Amino acid sequence: MSAPQVKIVEVGPRDGLQNESTPLTPQQKAELINDLAKSGITHIEAGSFVSPKWVPQMADSEQVFDLIERVTGVTYSALTPNLRGFEAALKCHVDEVAIFTSASESFTQKNINCSIAESIERFIPVLEAARQHNIPVRGYVSCVLGCPYEGNISHQAVLEVSQKLRELGCHEISLGDTIGVGTSRQTKSLLQALIPELGAETLAVHFHDTYGQAIANIDQSLDLGIRIIDASVAGLGGCPYAKGASGNVATEDVIYMLEGNGIHTGVDINKLVEAGSKISRVLNRPNGSKAGTALSHK
Ligand code: HMG
Ligand code: MG
């Protein structure tokens, strides 16, 4: 089988589950992660080493990592907002970590309790430690197409923080439409501003699907050369900063679109759909993937 033409970063066990109100056991979370790996997903954000007061859903990430059946060739990553988080992640033998900040001052303050500049300072020791341990670091930039507090965010603000993360040593920058407000032309305009400065190869797109725009935005991103896509099985999640919002774009919908367009992903959609149906049952919530719902009724 030829190599996948896109990299899918599955963020459901982290971005999805951090926003689900039904509590899961570490075993249930690990089972989801194992199911995803068996479907052919090769990059899984499996947890988060943040303050349990801020995000109680992720308080058991250490136990989750202990329970994962590691599959060779699969990268298991976690969010680490500071050195303490990085050290906890290291003990769990993560393959990669992610740091996260935002293009909006207000959002950064609400999410990680500091300014953008302070967040960058806080990341310096994380990057240093990661380099010593040979752990790749992904950088997230939130609010790239809008902020729940500030509204419009300039492309320049996104570019500046992305460049800082790149200078720190992040091998990949994930551009987050955190509240899912962006449309395809806005996506095009942003990427046309960023790609000449940063290159398309190491940029990822991370769309929440609040306004149903994610698939159109991903298609637009692909046209502009983006090859790294974040997605969440069954569209798990929501957004604590936008009540009633849906989660990330559903991985099943992304795979369906890519394969339908002749783009090889290496993912077995039927196994992925099973994983999505199963976790939706466990959470007692409707499946947030349209492709998943359709395929599971065939
Ligand atoms: P703080 O209050 O400014 O910092 O929080 P602090 O150092 O004073 O620590 C506060 C408490 O947290 C202390 O405990 C620390 O010990 C503890 P207390 O003394 O009160 O009992 N603490 C920790 N505990 C566990 N692990 C740690 C850790 N660090 C401190 N690593 C901090 C700053 C960053 C810690 C906090 O704001 C935090 O944890 N925020 C997490 C926010 C978060 O996880 N948000 C969701 C992920 S981001 C996202 O979803 C967006 C993304 O998907 C992209 C997109 O969609 O745009 C990535
Ligand atoms: Mg997100």
Overall description:
This protein has helices spanning 12-16, 26-38, 61-67, 83-91, 105-112, 116-132, 155-168, 184-198, 214-223, 251-260, 269-283, 290-296, and strands at 7-10, 43-48, 75-79, 96-102, 137-142, 172-177, 203-207, 228-231. It is α/β, with parallel strands linked by helices. The protein has one domain (7-296): TIM Barrel (Alpha-Beta Barrel). Strands 1-2-3-4-5-6-7-8 form an 8-stranded parallel barrel, surrounded by 7 helices. Helix 2 (26-38) packs antiparallel against helix 11 (269-283) and helix 6 (116-132) runs parallel beside helix 7 (155-168). The longest helix has 17 residues, at 116-132. The structure holds 3-hydroxy-3-methylglutaryl-coenzyme A and magnesium ion (MG). 3-hydroxy-3-methylglutaryl-coenzyme A binds next to helix 4, helix 5 and strand 5.
